[in-house]
Amino acid sequence: MKQKKGTIKRVGNVSIEYFCGHIRLRWTFEDKRKSLQVCPKDTVDGLQLATAKAKEIDSDLTRYKLGFGGYDESLAKYSKVSQKVVEQDDETVWDLKQIWERNKELKKGSISLSTQANSWKSVDKMLQMVDCSQSEASGFVDSLLKSYSPGGLKRPFDDIVAATNAWARRNDIRNPWRDIKSLLPKSKKSSNRSKEAWSRDEINEILQAFHQGKHKHYYPYVAFLAYTGCRPEEAIALTWDDVDLAKGIISINKRFTHGNLAKGTKTNDGREIRINNKLKELLIGQKNHGDNFNLVFPSVKGTYIGQSNFNKRVFKPVIKQLKEVGKISKDLPTYNLRNSFISLVLRETEIDIATTAKMTGTSEKMILQHYWGADDSVVIPEI
């Protein structure tokens, strides 16, 4: 019989495995997976002890199936290896940092290096700041809120919940951390994420400020967003093999968000953009800017643009200055270049809303609810 990864041997219906530095037993009882940690892996005669326990459990399972009883559903009968060992195991099992490290070990071959370098690193840093031996989720969250904002914890918490859910399934227990995101204080929705949009003249002022200012490296990136209505994470992930200047087509098929490169867009598998003369001129001018990632719009360092940092340190100061001198009327984030493109297409061209939705990778409903901004220049009509 082919052994599963980590299995040392089987005793009837019971598997003996190495797991997180321990020897444990696993079996199925009434279609439910059960597990029991016997002793640390380096315990003298640990394998012999585990084998004896496995034989006892297998024998009791057989007797139970034959109707003679004897199987202890509470597992207390089989846990009496050594009270000291059991207590040590309980402490190890509930240590969140050990669970996280085990999760990384199991998944490092299937998770992208960018995720390991960014998302995993964020969790590593977070777990160093708290007592990971506590199993009380509320105390864990309260400790982290002393150093993090609720928004800053959401992404790392997603990774922790995924890791602890897998751990809980393996051990056939309830995950005490599964609802940690619900313990975060409710944050107010940012007023910046609105339907508001800039006018055509305001877009031109923004592009001119980037083209002539100290952040001119990012002019092509900002211009691409303004000319296409792409989401920032789609433009950041764009590589030159997605661009076919001869055929006049750009393939939008991936995104870079929260430090991770993912296939597809936010809403579907991808779409194509037809290149007009303005886009073609922009891309030809950008073609000579090579980098290690083959990116169309690399950061100053030649890597993926960090959108959150870009918006805070580059885009927002430019927009703030333009508003202060009266060249634009609204202080909005980078994402609202998408709103502006969609609003201008619907207001100033004959392209219908269904085509606009397909072109920008969204739906008619989303355009009406989130993207189509009002025209503030309209004078109330005389009726």
SSE blueprint and pairings:
Elements (H helix, E strand, L loop, with lengths): L6 E5 L2 E6 L2 E8 L2 E9 L5 H20 L10 H4 L3 H11 L2 H12 L5 H5 L1 H9 L9 H8 L5 H22 L28 H13 L6 H10 L3 H6 L5 E2 L4 E4 L1 E4 L2 E4 L7 E4 L2 H10 L20 H18 L11 H13 L4 H8 L3 H8 L12
Antiparallel strand pairs: 1-2, 2-3, 3-4, 5-6, 6-9, 7-8
Helix pairs in contact: 4-8, 6-8, 9-10, 10-12, 10-14
Descriptive report:
With 383 residues, the chain is an alpha+beta fold. It contains 16 helices and nine strands. It has helices at 46-65, 76-79, 83-93, 96-107, 113-117, 119-127, 137-144, 150-171, 200-212, 219-228, 232-237, 277-286, 307-324, 336-348, 353-360, 364-371; strands at 7-11, 14-19, 22-29, 32-40, 243-244, 249-252, 254-257, 260-263, 271-274. It has a four-stranded antiparallel sheet with strand order 1-2-3-4. A three-stranded antiparallel sheet has the order 5-6-9. The protein is elongated and about 90 Å long. The model is unreliable at 82-93 (pLDDT under 50).
Apparent shape: elongated
Q: What fraction of the residues are assigned to beta strands by DSSP?
A: 5-15%
Class based on secondary structure composition and strand pairing: alpha+beta
Question: Taking Cα atoms only, what radius of gyration do you get, to the nearest Å?
Answer: 29 Å
How many DSSP-defined strands? 9
State the helical fraction: 40-55%
Strand arrangement, major sheet: 1-2-3-4
Low-pLDDT residue intervals, each spanning 5 or more residues: 82-93
